[in-house]
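Q: Joint fold for the lines below.
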Amino acid sequence: AQRVTQPEKLLSVFKGAPVELKCNYSYSGSPELFWYVQYSRQRLQLLLRHISRESIKGFTADLNKGETSFHLKKPFAQEEDSAMYYCALRAGYIPTFGRGTSLIVHP
Amino acid sequence: DGGITQSPKYLFRKEGQNVTLSCEQNLNHDAMYWYRQDPGQGLRLIYYSQIVNDFQKGDIAEGYSVSREKKESFPLTVTSAQKNPTAFYLCAGLSANTGELFFGEGSRLTVL
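A: Joint structure:
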């Protein structure tokens, strides 16, 4: 069975500090991994997916199959990055989500 | 405008009553999903449908039912058998091309 683990419920940083939101997964096949973000009063939306290898809003995430991780990183956090972040794994038709990490960026 | 539309946004129900949450889409997605979002528990899958007239139970299907009579519509019924129904419910459609989920704005159900 697939599983996604986000070990931090809450991450609190100051503006300009680096940020890393951790995500580990367990899945026997080749996973498709995603990061979704939910800003206050907005709907949950895709931030990035590992297959496209792009940087969105300064965030990047690298799939490390050896460590089964897909950590989300940003070198300099901004206040507008404050949101709830979910890591997700898709196997076939079933996307599985982690419990989410709330990121708070203080001015 | 369009995408995934959920209604109502807020709903109050007395114990013992069934309630149906609406989810409509105009994105031509074959696969649709219902998740329940609780603080600290992330998104948990209730039901999903890969195609019209077919649906499967997710991880927490007990006390819920769905139907998929049309491609555009995937309503969720929260029955009186659901022991802890107060929650935020999210509907989503899956893009077959990109694997991306498109979410509705959610429906918040409160049982009084």
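Q: Anything notable?
A: The interface with chain B takes residues 6, 9, 32, 34, 36, 43-46, 49, 51, 86, 88, 90, 93-100 of chain A (CB under 8 Å). DSSP finds no helices and eleven strands in chain A.
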